[in-house]
Protein backbone atom coordinates (compact mmCIF):
# COMPACT_ATOMS: atom_id res chain seq x y z
CA UNK A 1 0.00 0.00 0.00
CA UNK A 2 2.81 2.38 0.89
CA UNK A 3 4.41 1.49 -2.38
CA UNK A 4 1.25 2.25 -4.34
CA UNK A 5 0.86 5.59 -2.59
CA UNK A 6 4.50 6.36 -3.14
CA UNK A 7 4.08 5.73 -6.83
CA UNK A 8 0.99 7.92 -6.92
CA UNK A 9 2.82 10.74 -5.12
CA UNK A 10 5.66 10.46 -7.58
CA UNK A 11 3.32 10.75 -10.55
CA UNK A 12 1.53 13.65 -8.91
CA UNK A 13 4.62 15.70 -8.16
CA UNK A 14 6.65 15.15 -11.27
CA UNK A 15 4.66 17.35 -13.66
CA UNK A 16 4.24 20.02 -10.96
CA UNK A 17 7.99 20.05 -10.38
CA UNK A 18 8.49 20.37 -14.11
CA UNK A 19 6.14 23.33 -14.25
CA UNK A 20 7.99 25.08 -11.47
CA UNK A 21 11.35 24.53 -13.12
CA UNK A 22 9.90 25.75 -16.40
CA UNK A 23 8.62 28.92 -14.74
CA UNK A 24 12.02 29.51 -13.15
CA UNK A 25 13.74 28.93 -16.48
CA UNK A 26 11.46 31.47 -18.19
CA UNK A 27 12.05 34.01 -15.41
CA UNK A 28 15.78 33.46 -15.83
CA UNK A 29 15.59 34.14 -19.57
CA UNK A 30 13.58 37.32 -18.91
CA UNK A 31 16.06 38.43 -16.23
CA UNK A 32 18.93 38.16 -18.72
CA UNK A 33 17.15 40.76 -20.89
CA UNK A 34 15.91 43.03 -18.09
CA UNK A 35 18.94 45.31 -17.74
CA UNK A 36 19.26 45.96 -21.48
CA UNK A 37 15.53 46.63 -21.76
CA UNK A 38 15.64 49.13 -18.89
CA UNK A 39 13.09 47.22 -16.82
CA UNK A 40 14.73 48.00 -13.49
CA UNK A 41 13.71 50.92 -11.31
CA UNK A 42 15.02 51.96 -7.92
CA UNK A 43 12.44 52.67 -5.25
CA UNK A 44 13.50 54.64 -2.17
CA UNK A 45 12.49 54.40 1.49
CA UNK A 46 13.38 57.09 4.06
CA UNK A 47 15.37 56.60 7.28
CA UNK A 48 14.49 59.06 10.04
CA UNK A 49 17.23 60.38 12.32
CA UNK A 50 15.62 60.28 15.78
CA UNK A 51 17.90 62.87 17.40
CA UNK A 52 17.23 65.51 14.76
CA UNK A 53 13.74 64.43 13.74
CA UNK A 54 14.77 64.63 10.09
CA UNK A 55 15.21 62.23 7.19
CA UNK A 56 18.91 61.35 7.05
CA UNK A 57 18.98 58.82 4.26
CA UNK A 58 16.98 56.94 1.62
CA UNK A 59 17.55 53.23 1.07
CA UNK A 60 17.62 52.09 -2.57
CA UNK A 61 15.33 49.08 -3.06
CA UNK A 62 15.35 47.56 -6.52
CA UNK A 63 12.18 46.76 -8.47
CA UNK A 64 11.82 44.83 -11.73
CA UNK A 65 8.99 45.87 -14.03
CA UNK A 66 8.33 42.56 -15.74
CA UNK A 67 6.51 42.96 -19.08
CA UNK A 68 3.74 40.46 -18.17
CA UNK A 69 4.09 39.74 -14.45
CA UNK A 70 4.11 43.37 -13.27
CA UNK A 71 6.48 44.35 -10.43
CA UNK A 72 8.66 41.45 -9.30
CA UNK A 73 10.04 41.59 -5.74
CA UNK A 74 13.81 41.57 -5.16
CA UNK A 75 13.21 38.70 -2.73
CA UNK A 76 12.40 36.67 -5.85
CA UNK A 77 14.87 37.91 -8.46
CA UNK A 78 17.99 38.85 -6.44
CA UNK A 79 18.71 35.20 -5.45
CA UNK A 80 18.17 34.20 -9.09
CA UNK A 81 20.49 36.98 -10.28
CA UNK A 82 23.11 35.77 -7.78
CA UNK A 83 22.79 32.21 -9.04
CA UNK A 84 23.18 33.00 -12.73
CA UNK A 85 25.97 35.56 -12.29
CA UNK A 86 23.92 38.65 -13.13
CA UNK A 87 24.13 40.28 -9.72
CA UNK A 88 27.42 42.03 -10.53
CA UNK A 89 26.18 43.98 -13.59
CA UNK A 90 22.75 44.62 -11.97
CA UNK A 91 24.42 45.72 -8.73
CA UNK A 92 26.74 48.05 -10.63
CA UNK A 93 23.75 49.67 -12.33
CA UNK A 94 22.09 50.19 -8.92
CA UNK A 95 25.21 51.84 -7.47
CA UNK A 96 25.58 54.21 -10.44
CA UNK A 97 21.87 55.09 -10.66
CA UNK A 98 21.47 55.59 -6.89
CA UNK A 99 24.45 57.98 -6.83
CA UNK A 100 23.02 59.95 -9.78
CA UNK A 101 19.61 60.20 -8.08
CA UNK A 102 21.06 61.18 -4.69
CA UNK A 103 23.24 63.94 -6.18
CA UNK A 104 20.10 66.08 -6.65
CA UNK A 105 18.56 65.53 -3.20
CA UNK A 106 18.39 68.20 -0.48
CA UNK A 107 21.71 68.87 1.24
CA UNK A 108 22.90 66.25 3.68
CA UNK A 109 20.57 63.39 2.69
CA UNK A 110 22.46 60.18 1.98
CA UNK A 111 21.65 57.14 -0.14
CA UNK A 112 22.03 53.55 1.07
CA UNK A 113 22.66 50.72 -1.42
CA UNK A 114 22.32 47.01 -0.62
CA UNK A 115 25.27 44.85 -1.67
CA UNK A 116 25.17 41.13 -2.39
CA UNK A 117 27.96 38.98 -0.90
CA UNK A 118 28.93 38.05 -4.46
CA UNK A 119 29.73 41.68 -5.29
CA UNK A 120 32.49 41.50 -2.67
CA UNK A 121 34.19 38.73 -4.57
CA UNK A 122 34.33 40.93 -7.67
CA UNK A 123 37.57 42.89 -7.96
CA UNK A 124 35.58 45.60 -9.79
CA UNK A 125 33.61 46.74 -6.74
CA UNK A 126 36.03 49.44 -5.61
CA UNK A 127 36.42 50.97 -9.08
CA UNK A 128 32.65 50.81 -9.64
CA UNK A 129 32.10 52.84 -6.47
CA UNK A 130 34.82 55.37 -7.31
CA UNK A 131 33.41 55.68 -10.85
CA UNK A 132 29.82 56.17 -9.62
CA UNK A 133 30.89 58.89 -7.18
CA UNK A 134 32.96 60.68 -9.85
CA UNK A 135 30.26 60.52 -12.51
CA UNK A 136 27.52 61.79 -10.18
CA UNK A 137 29.50 64.29 -8.14
CA UNK A 138 28.01 62.74 -4.97
CA UNK A 139 30.40 63.13 -2.00
CA UNK A 140 31.63 59.74 -0.70
CA UNK A 141 30.21 60.58 2.74
CA UNK A 142 26.72 60.62 1.18
CA UNK A 143 26.92 56.98 0.08
CA UNK A 144 26.20 54.15 2.46
CA UNK A 145 26.54 50.44 1.71
CA UNK A 146 24.41 47.82 3.46
CA UNK A 147 25.81 44.34 3.86
CA UNK A 148 24.41 41.34 5.69
CA UNK A 149 26.21 38.95 7.97
CA UNK A 150 26.25 36.32 5.22
CA UNK A 151 28.49 38.64 3.19
CA UNK A 152 31.08 38.24 5.93
CA UNK A 153 30.62 34.50 6.45
CA UNK A 154 33.72 33.76 4.42
CA UNK A 155 35.41 36.54 6.42
CA UNK A 156 38.53 36.29 4.38
CA UNK A 157 41.31 38.84 4.47
CA UNK A 158 40.25 39.85 0.94
CA UNK A 159 36.72 40.76 2.08
CA UNK A 160 38.06 42.73 4.99
CA UNK A 161 40.62 44.58 2.85
CA UNK A 162 37.91 45.45 0.31
CA UNK A 163 35.65 46.85 3.06
CA UNK A 164 38.51 48.85 4.52
CA UNK A 165 39.40 50.34 1.14
CA UNK A 166 35.78 51.36 0.53
CA UNK A 167 35.59 52.82 4.03
CA UNK A 168 38.77 54.82 3.44
CA UNK A 169 37.03 56.61 0.56
CA UNK A 170 34.65 58.02 3.18
CA UNK A 171 31.75 55.72 2.26
CA UNK A 172 29.64 54.59 5.25
CA UNK A 173 29.16 50.88 5.95
CA UNK A 174 26.04 49.45 7.62
CA UNK A 175 25.33 45.93 8.81
CA UNK A 176 21.84 44.97 7.58
CA UNK A 177 19.27 42.65 9.19
CA UNK A 178 21.37 42.39 12.35
CA UNK A 179 20.47 39.46 14.57
CA UNK A 180 19.29 37.08 11.86
CA UNK A 181 22.64 35.63 10.72
CA UNK A 182 25.54 33.97 12.49
CA UNK A 183 28.29 35.13 14.85
CA UNK A 184 27.13 38.72 14.74
CA UNK A 185 29.40 39.94 17.50
CA UNK A 186 32.66 38.74 16.00
CA UNK A 187 31.88 40.72 12.83
CA UNK A 188 31.45 43.88 14.87
CA UNK A 189 34.92 43.28 16.22
CA UNK A 190 36.60 42.54 12.90
CA UNK A 191 35.19 45.54 11.06
CA UNK A 192 34.35 49.11 12.15
CA UNK A 193 30.74 49.45 10.95
CA UNK A 194 29.18 52.89 11.02
CA UNK A 195 25.68 51.55 11.55
CA UNK A 196 23.79 48.49 12.76
CA UNK A 197 20.33 47.92 11.31
CA UNK A 198 18.24 45.86 13.74
CA UNK A 199 16.14 43.34 11.83
CA UNK A 200 12.43 44.10 11.61
CA UNK A 201 11.48 40.86 13.37
CA UNK A 202 12.72 42.29 16.70
CA UNK A 203 10.83 45.55 16.16
CA UNK A 204 7.60 43.69 15.27
CA UNK A 205 7.77 41.66 18.48
CA UNK A 206 8.75 44.58 20.70
CA UNK A 207 5.17 45.18 21.86
CA UNK A 208 4.60 41.75 23.38
CA UNK A 209 7.86 39.80 23.51
CA UNK A 210 10.14 40.89 26.35
CA UNK A 211 13.18 39.18 24.88
CA UNK A 212 12.88 41.25 21.68
CA UNK A 213 12.92 44.47 23.68
CA UNK A 214 15.91 43.19 25.64
CA UNK A 215 17.76 42.50 22.38
CA UNK A 216 16.95 45.95 20.93
CA UNK A 217 18.15 47.54 24.17
CA UNK A 218 21.36 45.51 24.17
CA UNK A 219 22.16 46.30 20.53
CA UNK A 220 21.58 50.05 20.91
CA UNK A 221 23.79 50.07 23.99
CA UNK A 222 26.47 48.11 22.17
CA UNK A 223 26.17 50.40 19.15
CA UNK A 224 26.51 53.51 21.22
CA UNK A 225 29.61 52.14 23.04
CA UNK A 226 31.18 51.26 19.70
CA UNK A 227 30.27 54.64 18.17
CA UNK A 228 27.81 53.12 15.70
CA UNK A 229 24.33 54.33 14.73
CA UNK A 230 21.48 51.88 15.35
CA UNK A 231 18.52 51.77 12.97
CA UNK A 232 15.24 50.06 13.82
CA UNK A 233 13.86 48.41 10.66
CA UNK A 234 10.17 47.73 10.05
CA UNK A 235 8.64 50.49 12.20
CA UNK A 236 4.96 50.51 11.26
CA UNK A 237 3.19 52.40 14.06
CA UNK A 238 3.68 55.51 16.20
CA UNK A 239 3.86 53.24 19.28
CA UNK A 240 6.75 51.29 17.76
CA UNK A 241 8.51 54.53 16.82
CA UNK A 242 8.16 55.78 20.37
CA UNK A 243 9.37 52.46 21.73
CA UNK A 244 12.53 52.20 19.62
CA UNK A 245 13.37 55.82 20.35
CA UNK A 246 13.09 55.17 24.09
CA UNK A 247 15.25 52.05 23.74
CA UNK A 248 18.00 54.19 22.25
CA UNK A 249 17.80 53.60 18.49
CA UNK A 250 19.23 56.57 16.60
CA UNK A 251 17.28 55.95 13.39
CA UNK A 252 13.97 54.41 12.31
CA UNK A 253 12.77 53.01 8.99
CA UNK A 254 9.45 51.45 8.05
CA UNK A 255 5.98 51.77 6.56
CA UNK A 256 5.01 54.36 9.20
CA UNK A 257 7.39 56.83 7.54
CA UNK A 258 6.79 55.56 4.03
CA UNK A 259 6.69 52.49 1.86
CA UNK A 260 9.48 52.38 -0.74
CA UNK A 261 8.44 54.65 -3.66
CA UNK A 262 9.92 55.89 -6.96
CA UNK A 263 12.48 58.72 -6.90
CA UNK A 264 9.91 61.29 -8.05
CA UNK A 265 8.07 60.80 -4.74
CA UNK A 266 11.02 61.98 -2.59
CA UNK A 267 9.39 65.39 -1.83
CA UNK A 268 6.12 63.70 -0.77
CA UNK A 269 8.07 61.27 1.43
CA UNK A 270 9.90 64.15 3.16
CA UNK A 271 6.51 65.80 3.72
CA UNK A 272 5.02 62.63 5.25
CA UNK A 273 8.06 62.14 7.50
CA UNK A 274 7.54 65.67 8.88
CA UNK A 275 3.90 64.83 9.61
CA UNK A 276 4.97 61.65 11.43
CA UNK A 277 7.48 63.61 13.54
CA UNK A 278 4.75 66.19 14.33
CA UNK A 279 2.54 63.33 15.57
CA UNK A 280 -0.08 63.84 12.86
CA UNK A 281 0.29 60.32 11.42
CA UNK A 282 0.39 57.13 13.51
CA UNK A 283 -0.55 54.34 11.07
CA UNK A 284 1.49 52.60 8.36
CA UNK A 285 1.22 53.98 4.83
CA UNK A 286 -1.25 51.91 2.78
CA UNK A 287 -0.06 49.77 -0.10
CA UNK A 288 -0.49 51.58 -3.43
P1 LIG B 1 16.45 44.91 3.20
O1 LIG B 1 17.68 45.53 2.67
O2 LIG B 1 16.47 44.45 4.61
O3 LIG B 1 15.29 45.97 2.94
C1 LIG B 1 14.19 46.14 3.79
C2 LIG B 1 12.96 45.43 3.27
O4 LIG B 1 11.94 45.55 4.23
C3 LIG B 1 12.41 46.02 1.98
O5 LIG B 1 11.81 44.97 1.23
C4 LIG B 1 11.34 46.98 2.50
O6 LIG B 1 10.32 47.25 1.56
C5 LIG B 1 10.80 46.16 3.66
N1 LIG B 1 10.20 47.02 4.67
C6 LIG B 1 10.56 48.28 5.03
N2 LIG B 1 9.79 48.75 6.03
C7 LIG B 1 8.90 47.77 6.32
C8 LIG B 1 7.80 47.67 7.27
O7 LIG B 1 7.51 48.59 8.04
N3 LIG B 1 7.11 46.50 7.27
C9 LIG B 1 7.41 45.46 6.42
N4 LIG B 1 6.65 44.36 6.49
N5 LIG B 1 8.43 45.54 5.52
C10 LIG B 1 9.16 46.67 5.47
P2 LIG B 1 12.07 44.80 -0.33
O8 LIG B 1 12.10 46.15 -0.99
O9 LIG B 1 11.10 43.78 -0.84
O10 LIG B 1 13.53 44.21 -0.38
C11 LIG B 1 13.80 42.97 0.17
C12 LIG B 1 15.28 42.68 0.21
O11 LIG B 1 15.81 42.57 -1.12
C13 LIG B 1 16.11 43.77 0.88
O12 LIG B 1 16.03 43.64 2.29
C14 LIG B 1 17.48 43.47 0.31
O13 LIG B 1 18.09 42.44 1.05
C15 LIG B 1 17.15 42.96 -1.08
N6 LIG B 1 17.40 44.02 -2.07
C16 LIG B 1 16.59 45.03 -2.46
N7 LIG B 1 17.21 45.82 -3.39
C17 LIG B 1 18.45 45.27 -3.58
C18 LIG B 1 19.58 45.61 -4.40
O14 LIG B 1 19.60 46.61 -5.14
N8 LIG B 1 20.68 44.79 -4.31
C19 LIG B 1 20.71 43.70 -3.49
N9 LIG B 1 21.83 42.94 -3.46
N10 LIG B 1 19.69 43.38 -2.69
C20 LIG B 1 18.57 44.13 -2.73
MG1 LIG C 1 18.92 46.90 3.34
MG1 LIG D 1 17.24 45.08 6.32
MG1 LIG E 1 15.83 42.15 4.96
Q: Cα distance, first to last residue?
A: 52 Å
Helix fraction, binned, reads 40-55%
* Tally of DSSP β-strands: 10
**Spatial strand order of the main sheet:** 1-2-4-5-6-7-8-9
What series of H and E elements makes up the topology?
HEEEHHEHHEHEHEHHEHEEH
Low-confidence stretches: none
Radius of gyration, taken over Cα atoms and rounded to an integer in Å: 21 Å
Instruction: Identify every distinct bound molecule in the structure, by name, code or SMILES.
Output: ligand C2E, magnesium ion
Beta-strand percent range: 15-25%
Count of helical segments? 11
Shape descriptor reads globular
Mean pLDDT: 92
Largest sheet: 8 strands, mixed, barrel
> Structural class of the secondary structure composition?
alpha/beta
Could you walk me through the main structural features you see in this protein, from its secondary elements to its overall organization?
- Keywords: Membrane, Transmembrane, Transmembrane helix.
- It comes from Mesorhizobium montanum.
- Residues 24-274 form the EAL domain.
- This is EAL domain-containing protein.
- It is a single chain.
- The chain has helices at residues 2-34, 74-83, 87-102, 117-120, 125-136, 157-168, 184-190, 200-205, 210-225, 238-246, 266-277; strands at residues 40-49, 54-66, 70-72, 110-114, 143-148, 172-178, 195-198, 229-232, 251-253, 261-262.
- It is of the alpha/beta class and 288 residues long.
- An 8-stranded mixed beta barrel has the order 1-2-4-5-6-7-8-9, surrounded by 5 helices.
- The longest helix has 33 residues, at 2-34.
- The termini are far apart.
- Strand 5 (143-148), helix 6 (157-168) and strand 6 form a beta-alpha-beta unit.
- Bound molecules: ligand C2E and magnesium ion (3 copies).
